[in-house]
Amino acid sequence: MKGLTKLTAVSLAVAAALPMMANADVLISEYVEGSSNNKAIELYNNGDTVVDLAGYKLVRYKDGDTAALDMVDLTDSIAAKSVKVILHPSAAITLPAGTDSMTGNLYFNGGDAVGLLKDDVLVDVIGDIPTPSGWGLDTTFQRNLEDLTASTTYDAAQWVTLEKDTFSGLGTLDAAEAPEPSTFTCNGATLTNIYDIQGAGDSSPLVASGSFESANEVTVKGIVSARSDSLYKGFFIQDAQGDGSPYTSDGIFVYLNEAAPDTIQPGTEVCVQGKVKEYYGSTQIDIKDEQKFEVGVVGDAPAAVEFYVADGETLAQALERVEGMKVKLDAGSDMKVTRTFSFDYSSYRNNMVLSHKAPLMKPTQVFEPNSAEAVALNDANMVNQLFVESDYKANDGEVPYFPDFNAETGYIRVGDQLTNLEGVIGYSYSSYRLLATNTISAGDFIRVDDRTNAPTVANMGDIRVASFNVLNFFNDAVGGDANPSNSNRGALAEDEMVLQRTKIVNALVAMNADVVGLMEIANNGFGELSAIQNLVDALNAELTDEQAYRFVEIEDVDKYDGKYIGSDAITVGMLYRPASISLDGAAQVIATPEQHAAEGAQTREQNGVVESSPSYDKYQRHSLVQSFSINDEKLTIVVNHLKSKGSGCIEDWAEFNENSEPADLQGKCNAFRVSAAKVLGESLNDVDGDVLVIGDLNAYGKEDPVAVLTDYDASTTDHVIRTASWTTLDGKVYERSGSVIEKGYGLINLNTQMHGADTYSYSYNGELGNLDHALGNASLAAKVVGIDDWHINSVESNLFEYGSKYTGDLVKSENAFSASDHDPVIIALSYPAPVVTPEPVDPVEPEKSSDGGSLGYLALMLLGALGLRRRS
């Protein structure tokens, strides 16, 4: 019988937690999930009296969720020993004349369990909770006539599985005939070896070029290495002997489009017959239609082979050699975490990504955009990724193959080397994936760059300046003042906000900086109920008076609406220690350009079709400037947070990049950020003394905005940098059309000067790079004694951050790790106290004492011995 699944432990646990109503009269007797809107649920009243359906409703458990979503509130009644059919309003289903029926919003899909509730108490259910992905897709289920009993847990033995769009039983209670059991046998069949199917190339030699399946079916025998009831829907088999060649895989995936029968378990010998298919790059044997398989003896599952990447091959090429096989990652595999366990929008599930030898680096962090080197690195990154998966979607806050995942001792960091994990190699969503078959512990991670409790420069130099993006620190949850947009991008509850603040404070205390530039702090002014005051109060509570901070406040004339720095919900801020450094004049604001383009301001053409642009109104946050005095020297610090890479500007629309990553890999609104960099450079041209530009520039190390502020020279490169069009500044037209930048403003990238180009403070989509910068003029650069990207955030799991929305029961920690998603950057500077040169003492004729001695001479000698001299 098709489609039978075993009652899972998870289902039992979920059902045990639900209120139950045993032996209810009304139950689900048929489930139809067919083509398009052909969806139906049939109910049966097994009692002897009419049942009023008021209070009954149908719900669904969507895509493995354990919480129900309402679908249909039932009406009228259902006669004794009778059925009632609920149809989707657009279903193309004809019912027998006189059938008791109604329409309702049946929007369940394959993978959704359907429940019947009475007064919000579960009465009956079809499908496990949580439900395996695709469980009921294109299927009709009819309940066995001899088992018409409601149940709050799903038992597949109660149901008969029928083909897609089978409607003949709806409206009646006629017994459905189960499909005849398979009579397929391998006896006498000519067997094809798995390694001959896989071959030594990227696709099977049995699939002709230009085709996606073999001309004929093959018969294959192998040992089951793993089941996949959810991710792939089938099972993996492996040749018992193999051919001993490292170039051909001994394993292959068998596609069923549903969970395999319980008789197929790891270690079982199975013979299958079907066509070989190349399904979007995955080599598999497709038996979903006729399900030709024969189960043999049960023995041991195939042992995992140690995975390695040979000299001269890419990770993708190495994985292709073992596609379908069970492998083990060991120390020799040299596989590093390049993205910690988090959400993957391609497969729409949580997973982790590994790369060979080292985490991936963002190409534009180390190479000029559009350069041959950047293109080559991007191509290399694409074939240097292995996704680590669990079969079923992980519960929030859990890593299925790492059960001791926790914020204190069981963490995962980018750069960790992973060992002792076993799994089968599959291919889906354009990537190779290891489907884990065992569990690992913290000891299986080799910590290449482990956590540290403080940055290396925390006590270096005479002062330290830090840049810290604090990931939307809002105090709305505790009654903070409003921001200009009256929106809260941060913690939604007081406990979340307190946890976030505690983590940030612990990081700031360890950094021991004398000036701190902040990004992504709520833009709600400077009053007692402002976010910056809230943070400073909590920070100073952990410090002595000598270590205490104040915040920099701009003058009223520079405040938007008399309160804010600009009009965004978030802003930049600055903290300083009065005991270490003194303000030198008032703080200033550098306004950044806005982009305002009316509808139709620009056109684009593709395939002869001309389109006019929609309107664009884009903004970016202003920069904050404060000069300081330290030991008679002037230091000017500028804190910045330029436009993000996510939302597009008119230049992206013009290049057809409004829904995709631009080809130069610099993200959206790059020219808009260049405009801001130009304004910033011009504003700082005439500033006296040392200048330090810090903050989140939303540009990696070699990208245009950083190049404009530093060493760009158009005469030495073919790479052209342009500002944005349709920009205004302070309400006046700034640039109608984008202009070409000829020369940068000469600041020095302090981080890359000291550590090289491959530094990082941020991780996105498995690639590392620096968005958080420290740029200085020549006099400032000469004073740098150390700089550190303190890796407490970029390489950590975002599941440890303050938010609880997607973390389930995961216990949070108050430690500094995952205090934000950006690493703080700390710069140690030398500002020694002035050296006092003693003034020479003029010789004086000593006054004679009565005994002929010299009192004056003796006094001078004594002062000299004590080291006391008249100071200049």
TrEMBL record:
Tell me which residues make up the LTD domain. Answer: 9-156
- Keyword line: Exonuclease, Hydrolase, Nuclease, Signal
Which molecular-function annotations from GO does this UniProt entry contain? exonuclease activity
Query: What name does UniProt use for this protein?
Result: Extracellular exonuclease ExeM
- Give the InterPro entries listed for this entry: Endo/exonu/phosph_ase_sf, Endo/exonuclease/phosphatase, ExeM-like, GlyGly_CTERM, Lamin_tail_dom, Lamin_tail_dom_sf
* Signal peptide range: 1-24
Q: Which PANTHER family match?
A: ENDONUCLEASE/EXONUCLEASE/PHOSPHATASE FAMILY PROTEIN (AFU_ORTHOLOGUE AFUA_3G09210) (PTHR42834), ENDONUCLEASE_EXONUCLEASE_PHOSPHATASE FAMILY PROTEIN (AFU_ORTHOLOGUE AFUA_3G09210) (PTHR42834:SF1)
